[in-house]
Amino acid sequence: MMVIKKTNLPLVVLTIILLKNVHQTFGAVFEPYKVLGVHRRAEIGEIRKTYKRLAKEWHPDKVTGDKEKKDAEAKFIEINRAYELLR
Questions:
Q1: Contact at 8 Å (CB) between 33 and 39?
Q2: pTM for the whole thing?
Q3: What domain range is 67 assigned to?
């Protein structure tokens, strides 16, 4: 069993918080096929067609309202990232 001195306690707490944040940030696996909604064996033509449809649907300029615009912008960036990986 490890004994933690009082002087090291803030360092231990900070380390735990940092590790938790790193896990939340990098722990999730990005799945471009799932983002675009295409099969893993989809051809580039189908991927491009799906990308264009989703990009038009989620473009931030098409939405009104601050919250909706931020959500659409995040989804639009995710769609672009997925397409960049697959093309």
A1: yes
A2: 0.66
A3: 29-86
